Structure formats: C-alpha cells, structure tokens
Amino acid sequence: MIFGKHQVALGVLGMLIMGRVLPVWAAETADGNVQEIVITANRMENKKVDTPANVSLVSSEDLTNWNSRSVADALENVPGVRVVRNGLGTNGASVFLNGEERVLFLVDGRRVNTSMGNTSTRVTFDANTLPPVDLIDHIEIVKGGVSTVYGADAVGGVINIITKSPEKVSGKVHVGYGSWGNQQWGFDVGGKKGRTGLVAAGNREKVSYLKYKDTNGDTKKWPGQSNYTQDSLSLKLTQDFTDRDGLTFTYDYSNLDGFSPYSVVNYFSSSFVTKKTNNVSLMYDWNRNQNNSGFLRAYRNYNHYYNYGHMYEMDWAVEGQQNVALSDTNRLLAGAEFRHASANNTFYYDEKKSYDNRSFYLQDQWEFAPTWQLNTGLRYDNYHHVASRTTGSAALNKRFDEGSHAYFAWNQVFKVPNTDDLYYMADWGSGSGYFANPNLKPETGNVYTVGYDFKSSPATDWHVSAFYSDLHDAIRWVAEDSNPYAYHSLNAAREKKRGFEISATHKLNDHWDLNGSYTYVKVRKDQNGDGYERDLNYAPNYYQFGVRYHDAAWNVNLVGRAANGLSKERYGENRYLTMDLNARYTFDRHWTGFATIYNLNNAAYAEMGGAVNGQDSYPMPGRRFIVGAEYKF
C-alpha cells in the first residue's frame, strides 16, 4: 500500500474519522449537558473538563459496538494508543502510550503489572490477560505520567479497567466461528438481591493455525504449530452494609495454552507455552460519593509462565486511601501501600527472589478560582532491595466552558529494575547468553504534558496535546560489541521522547459518526554518551480512523490503523494500512448477530520490529473473519 505521510494526515483529519469514543460515566448539568466523569487521573471523581490530563474513555457501549473480544482489541481504537503484537496470540499484546512501553495497568484501581518483566522490552504486562470485556463497565486511559497516586513507574500513563457493578438480574451468552478454526464462546450474568450482588463473565477462544501475507504478496501459513486456547473468568461479589459502605470481593482468572514459533524467518521449532493468572482482592470502602470517601484493600496477584522452564510470580499488597475536604474548593487525598513481590525462574534464577515496597502519597486538589484548578502531589517509595526516593507532581487546569479546557502536567519518574534485569542468567556457553546485573540503578526522569480539548461546533470535538519525557539511566539489554549473542542488562541509555496527538470526532447526523487521529512520536536514545540516535523499532507517524453507521437495528464500523516512517532495517515495509469492518444486527430484544472482518485489505505488515532480507520476522495475520450470535436474557 503506497501513500504519502502528508496525504494520509490530511485525509484522516479531513474526514474526522474512527467511530467515536463515547461518554462513559455521566453527570447532568443544570443546562442539560452531559459531562464525562473520570477517576483515574486524580483518584478523585472529577468531570473530564476539570481534569488536567490527556484522558480517553471507552464505554461498555463502545466495546459492544466495536465487537471487541479483548481489551487489547478495544484499545486499538483509542487515539494515541498503540497495541503491539508479534503476530501470535501466545506471545501477548504490549500497549504503548505516548511512545512509551512503561505503562501501568489497573483493574478497579488495583495494580496488575508483574514485577518480573522480560529481557526484550520494558513491558511488564500482557493486555490479553485482562478480564473479559463483557464484565467491563468502562476503561479510563490517562496518557502521560501519573506519579503521585499510582507510582512513579507509570511513565507512559495508566490504563484502568473499571468492571461492572451488580444491578438488575440479566445475562448474555455469545458464540462465534471464523477463519483458521477460530471459535469463541462467552457469557456474562449478574444481579442484586437486597444488599448482595454478583456479576460474572467468562470467555474461551480457540485458534487452530494462523496465516499471514509476506511483502512479496504471498499468503503463507505460520511455520510449525501456532494453535492456542485461551480461557478467562472473572467475578465480582458485593455486600453493602449501607448505601455508602460495603465489601467488594473480586476474582480474575486466565489461562492460555498453545504453541509459539519464534519467528517466520529464522524459524525455530514451536515451543509449548502456558500463561496463567489468578488474582483475588477484597476491599472495604466507606462514604461513597462523598468528599470524605476512602477504602482499604488487600489483594494477591499470581502469574505463571511456562516456556522451556517455569516462571512464577506472586505479589500481595495492602493499600488504603482517605479523601479529606479541607474546604469547599480544596480536597486532600492521602494514601499508603505495602507490597511484597516474589518471583522465581526455575531455569534462569539461582533461587527465588523477592522484595518489599512501602509507599506513601499526598495529593492536593485546589480550585483556587472558579475555573482554575491546581493539583500538587508528593510520593515516597522505599524499595528495600534497590533504593528509596521522594517524587513530585504538579498539574494546572483551566476550564473555559463545559466543553473545553486546557491543562499542563509535570510528573517525576522513579522506576526500579525488574527482577529479570537484576537476576536473569542464561549462560549458553562460549560467552553467549543473557547476563543480569544486580547493581542496576533505578530509572529516573521527568514527564511533561500539555493539552487543549474544545468543541468547534455542537457536533465536533477536538483534542490536541503534546508531550515530552526525559529518562535517565534507562535500562536495556545490550549486546557486546565483540559478541552479538551476549546480552547484559545495563543502565545504558538516556531516552528522550517527544510528540503530539491530534484527534477529532464529528457527528454527521443521527446515523453517521466520523472521527480520526494522528500521533507523532520521536524516540531518541543516547547509548553510553555516544550521541542521540533514533529508535528504529518505533513508527514516528501513526494514524487511526473510522466511520460508523447506526440505527435501531444496525451498527456498522469501518476502522483503520496506518503507520509510516518505519525503518527498513527493522521492518519489511516502511508503511502500512490495515482496516477492520465489523457489523451488528439486532433481531429483537434477545437476539443479535455479529460479524467482523479483520485486516479487510489483507495488508502485509508487522507491529513488532524484526526483519530479514526484506521480510518481517513477526508478521500480523492476514484477512480473516468471525461471525456469531448473542442471546440476552
């Protein structure tokens, strides 16, 4: 697919594309306008227009309209969010915000990232292991540092999955079949009797094999076995004592079994892979929807990964938070957390490793004038195995009217090494292998974000933001000059990222919606003081677009993603365009049919860098489809 950078940018923004991200949690003002409410950015309830951050919202309605079968699928439609896969379902989905892979994932405000990490990227979470989409009420995405309340390691931002709360008795089942032996089954059910409520959802997906299109235009099957089966189950049990306080118990389980060929170019025999998560939490909260609300929560996260050896991680934590109304215009948030993380790799650690972290934070939200808000915060983290540090944050918001605001935010970064960085040792002989460094320093730095949201007409919304981050002592696994097969974990680089995001949504009429976005990211690294060089693994120009038609029975979306400026050293092509088409038809109040065609234009492309002789090592699947039906009761 041949297209020019400026032509695509003008085309995308000219059309105002991509199927809107709709309001998810609303409060009605006196004049009847509906305002979006967000919590993640400040951990306090605020209107989006009063939040000094780049926030995107995905509602349960969006998840349904897009036929999303995973959180990763849904995030691909959010402006400025990049989901990177290596072509295979067994190897997970990494999410980048503002060009940054150090992203914090939360489920109902509870941290779910692993402490182990891996030796190839700074990613510490697989988005494919999140709860089933049928259990999700909405998703809040905050781009830019959010250091005070969630931890100074959230360099790129925070993605918070908010699950549904029990209401009236209802349920749904769905089944789908598609290309390459793809089968999907799922259910969700919930209800509330008196003060006791329950919601639960489960999914199963099976894939028999995968095909892709290479840069020569030939359709091929992934070599070896590429089949997998993934199951997920989540539930939430609530017991209210009054309308303002109660207990919430949650359980999240996922299990993936399948085969993982290393790549399609330098092919290694498929290895069997197992990924399992098993997370539980118990929370007591009080004074709900009040200025003096608070909570106390205990949780345990368990992760097991098998591939040529077992890797285990178990984290448990206790955290609490209290909001205090200092005045009608000033609110203070105080919180503390104790977290214990332990990890073991039966092949590559000499023994089980563990560490403790104690953290305390304060954040003040001050409306010092009727349309001005200033947020300031301090956080102290004490990682007993590495270091301790106090970090700060500040953000300023100016509301112009109920549809527009401008903001500036600054956050400090403090991210300790993953356990793999410190302890992973894989000696292949002859000096080759992976060699960890127990003396690594934490990554530190600053993240800045500035933005402006506004309406150019009652039917058109715009978002413009810019960002800059400067990271010192960035940790990378670096190959020796004399031996390209000997990798060492080092504080090897200073990393700078800067860019901007422009997005727009437009409602043509009662049936047609358009929107789109363009994101520019420049990633530069200074490896050991040798001067800044471009990171060749990242596309500087990224576009998202879509068109939506909807009426009482039909909902149809054409969505697309495009990138250019890719390095031919790391990718088979320096640009790509891929589109998905999904449709839903409601027969009656019980039955709905759905269908999705992925990669409609059968593009040859890759999201993860790696190429040999002009061919992508990790190509994305070619055109494929799934059709199915849902029954509500």
From TrEMBL:
Major localization listed first in the record, in broad terms: membrane
Signal peptide (from-to): 1-26
Cellular location(s): Cell outer membrane
Gene3D superfamilies assigned to the protein according to its UniProt record, in alphabetical order: TonB-dependent receptor, beta-barrel domain (2.40.170.20), TonB-dependent receptor, plug domain (2.170.130.10)
Residue ranges of every copy of the TonB-dependent receptor-like beta-barrel domain listed in the record: 207-600
Residue ranges of every copy of the TonB-dependent receptor plug domain listed in the record: 48-158
Name of the protein in its database record: TonB-dependent receptor
